[in-house]
C-alpha cells in the first residue's frame, strides 16, 4: 500500500517548508548569536546547581506553582533592573516572562491587530517584527530614520496623513535604544516629542529594548519610553543578547489591563522554568559585571570588523556607528543589489543578512546589509570580510582594488 501524502491535507496559509539545517558556514555573520567565549559557563553551572538544589522540587508543578507570570525570582530581578537602569517604576507583579521577546511581539499583535489595521515601524527594523505584523494582517507604514533614529518631522506628517484618511494606527513599534539594525539611540528630546505626537493622535507605543543592556562603556541611554509615559507604552526586553540566545527568555512591562490580557493569551503552559531559575540566580549576583565584560568584548570585535571593512572595501562602503549591540549596518553603492550576492557568498562559505530583509520596503534597502560581529572570532571576521569583498568584486566590480583606502564612517 502506498504511503499517505499528508501534505495534501495542509490547511490554507501554512508557511512554506523550512530547509534542513545545513550547519553554520565558515564565516557566519547572520542572526542574533553571541560570543561563545563570553558565555559565563562556570557561573551558570554554579547558579544552576544552587537554584535547583534549593528550589528544584517546585519543578513538579506548572509555573513552579508561582502563577502564569513567571518565576518570581526572575520577575524581581527584571523589576529591579528596569527601575535602576531604564527608569521604569515597576514591581514583580507588573511583569510577564515570555519565551523570548518574539513571544511578546506575538502577544501584542494578537491583542491589537485585526486584518486591515495599520501599524508604524521604523523603515529599517527587526525583520521578525515586520513579518509578524504582516502575518497578523496589518499594513505596515515605514518611519524614516536618520543617524539618531526616528525623524520626528516625518512622524508628524505620517500621523497627520493617516488621520486625514480616517486611520488611527494600532501601534508605533520602535527600538529606541540600540536600534536594530542601525545601532542608534533615540535622544531624549525626540523621545518626548514622539510620545507627545502619539498621545495627540491616540497611537500606543510598542517599545522593544532587546539590546539596551549592551552599551559601549562611554555611552549612556535616556530613560525608556515606558519610563517617560507608562500609560502609552508596552515595553518588551530579552535576555537573548545579554546572556544567551538559547535561553528563550524575554519579558513584558505594561499597565495591568494590557498585561492581564497578555497573560490570558499566553496559553503555553509556561516559559521554561529551569531557564528562568538559572538566569535569575546568576544575574541577581553578577549582572553588572557580566554585562560590562560582555559589552567590552563586543566593542573590540566591532573595531575589528570596522578595520577589516575599511581595509577591504575602502570608500566603497558606508557604515553606521552603533552605540552598542552586536550588529553593523552598512551600505554599498546604489548600483549594487545585495540580494544578488547571497548565493555567491554562500558558495564561498559566507552568510550575511541582506538589507531588504530588514526593511519595511525592501527596495529602499537593496544596497544595504547587516553583519553580526558577535559570533565569529577576530580571525574569522578578518578572513570573512576579505572573502566577502572578493565575492563583491567578482560579482559587481566593487570594491575596485585601487579604492581600498581607509575611510570615515557615515
Written description of the protein model:
The chain is α/β, with parallel strands linked by helices. It has 2 domains: 24-39 and 289-403, Alpha-Beta Complex (Aspartate Aminotransferase, domain 1); 41-286, 3-Layer(aba) Sandwich (Aspartate Aminotransferase, domain 2). 39% of the residues lie in helices and 13% in strands. The protein has helices spanning 41-55, 72-86, 101-112, 127-135, 152-164, 188-201, 225-228, 256-265, 273-313, 342-347, 378-396, and strands at residues 27-28, 95-98, 118-122, 139-143, 145-146, 149-150, 172-174, 205-208, 233-238, 250-253, 318-319, 327-331, 350-351, 353-354, 368-372. The strands form 4 sheets. A 7-stranded mixed β-sheet has the order 2-10-9-8-7-3-4, sandwiched between helices. A 4-stranded antiparallel β-sheet has the order 11-12-15-14, with no helix packed on it. α4 links the parallel β3 and β4. The longest helix is centred in the C-terminal third of the chain and has 41 residues, at 273-313. Mean pLDDT is 95; it is low at 402-410.
What is the gist of this entry?
By secondary structure, the chain is an alpha/beta fold.
Tell me, rounded to a whole number, the average pLDDT: 95
Estimate percent helicity. 25-40%
Kindly report the spatial arrangement of strands forming the biggest sheet: 2-10-9-8-7-3-4
Q: Which CATH class of the largest domain is shown?
A: Alpha Beta
